[in-house]
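lol forgot to send this yesterday, sorry. struct tokens for the thing we talked abt
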């Protein structure tokens, strides 16, 4: 995801004045090791938080990385 809004990605709500962060999706056509690691961290965090994302606790980093490597292979293959 790409972080947007203001010089540091933040903007204030016009009603409450509370600073918010805005995000917008970004299409990735290929994944490098750093991106795979970041996606693995997000997946592990979601699972630890109880999200229903087809994985159960405990989800190891190796399994999360393997999942995203498989996704990357599928994307590269079209």
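and heres what i got for the seq, position by position
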């Amino acid at each position: 995801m790409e972080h947007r809004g203001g010089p540091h990605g933040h903007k204030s709500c016009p009603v409450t004045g509370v600073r918010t962060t805005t995000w917008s999706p970004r299409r990735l056509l290929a994944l490098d090791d750093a991106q795979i690691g970041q996606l693995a961290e997000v997946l592990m965090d979601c699972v630890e938080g109880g999200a229903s994302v087809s994985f159960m606790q405990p989800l190891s980093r190796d399994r999360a990385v393997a999942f995203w490597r498989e996704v990357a292979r599928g994307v590269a293959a079209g």
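Residues 1-8 have pLDDT under 50 and may be disordered. anyway ping me if u want another try
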